[in-house]
Automatic annotation (TrEMBL):
Amidohydrolase-related domain span: 54-423
Protein name (database record): allantoinase
Cofactor(s) needed by this chain: Zn(2+)
Pathway: Nitrogen metabolism; (S)-allantoin degradation; allantoate from (S)-allantoin: step 1/1
Record family assignment: Belongs to the metallo-dependent hydrolases superfamily. Allantoinase family.
GO molecular function annotations of the record: allantoinase activity
PANTHER family the record matches: ALLANTOINASE
Source species taxonomy: Bacteria, Bacillati, Actinomycetota, Actinomycetes, Streptosporangiales
Organism: Nonomuraea insulae
Entry keyword set: Hydrolase, Metal-binding, Zinc
Pfam family membership, one: Amidohydro_1
Entry's EC annotation: 3.5.2.5
UniProt xrefs under InterPro entries: Allantoinase, Amidohydro-rel, DHOase/Allantoinase_Hydrolase, Metal-dep_hydrolase_composite, Metal_Hydrolase
Domain of life: Bacteria
Amino acid sequence: MTGFDLVVRSRRTVTPEGERPAALAVRGEKIAALYDYTEPLTATEDIDLHDLALLPGLVDTHVHVNEPGRTHWEGFDSATRAAAAGGVTTIVDMPLNSLPPTVSAEALDVKLRAAEGQCHVDVGFWGGAVPGNVKDLAPLHERGVRGFKCFMSPSGVEEFPPLSAAELRLALEEIAGFGGLTVVHAEDPALLAEPGGPTYREFLDSRPGASERSAVEQVVRLAEETGARVHILHVSSADCLDVLEAAQARGVAVSAETCPHYLTLAAEQVPEGETTYKCCPPIRSEANRDLLWDGLARGVLSCVVSDHSPSTAELKVPDFAAAWGGIASLQLGLAAIWTEGARRGFGLEDVVRWMSTNPATLAEISGKGGLKVGNDADLVAFDPEADNLIDAARLHHKNPVTPYHGRTLKGAVLTTWLRGRPVDGSPHGRFLLGAH
């Protein structure tokens, strides 16, 4: 038998068929075979994880890298280091918060030049749909973006304005025409208000769950009318679940995601002035959180992704009306979801489905999302029993700003391999530009 480059053995190998003892064999950059755990094999390197878990690399399709233009908030080097440290081997970068935003093929070229040689994991890109750029959508699609992000309410940065209802219809018609995907920040601006003061309660009241539900209803209606394929980003309100479930049952091409902070944090826990918890849409009640978990268990919500939206500490002023809205958690999503998911009776195979398999399917990234023959050898050695005290200053995020600081999470990433090579500080990530 021809030898392998790498064999990784684990009694807790999480495969598409479930968790089992296995020996995973790698040749070149690909998973070549899966054998019984004790199978004698010839390999350049043979690693036995024993009772530690072997997972596929996670796929995080909602990451704001912010480079170029706001690289002091985050950048490709720091973001992809953080990703690898958290077991994420593929990210898809959002088109806003960088300057220029990725709303044309020329802007994508600027971003690619900025990212070149810095990526420790593989990186795909979303394009942006903004007022007046319908003509730019097909060229971006042809260049290989995974789909198009748009807002229905103000984005927080003036260079990425929201689409009106008429503009959203035009964008959906155009994107549907070439078979693309539209991912939508769904909050109805007519139901949003300015916070009445600096407290978290006032901020939360200014962005009610009804605003998400109304926006989702509008997106579903437009998807039915245009035949567009749509995905609802960062669902925070359980008010959306019945609308989504009914649309999915009717065959509407609509999917949805949520985020670790909506599944692990709650409004009742937010200390006054602690604006590391501020994000849009906001973290809601404990009862709402329970309903989101139920929606995830039923498959109404299919993906759990970070919406990593970092900023400098200076922008997180202790005033919920004035502070930048975004949660930094790219490195922490796996541990956060495993901590809460295990407590609720979910297994590692559930976490892998939500955080690897389904996001890869959503963004149509082939060769990712599961430990199966022919896929890239993106692997994670994970200790599911480790106690993990979070110190923001020790994270790879560029700025030590996260609501998880001081919390003890369950689970730690020990080693991450990208296409069969350990992520060891020497960038070997690639750009994932789709062939459309």
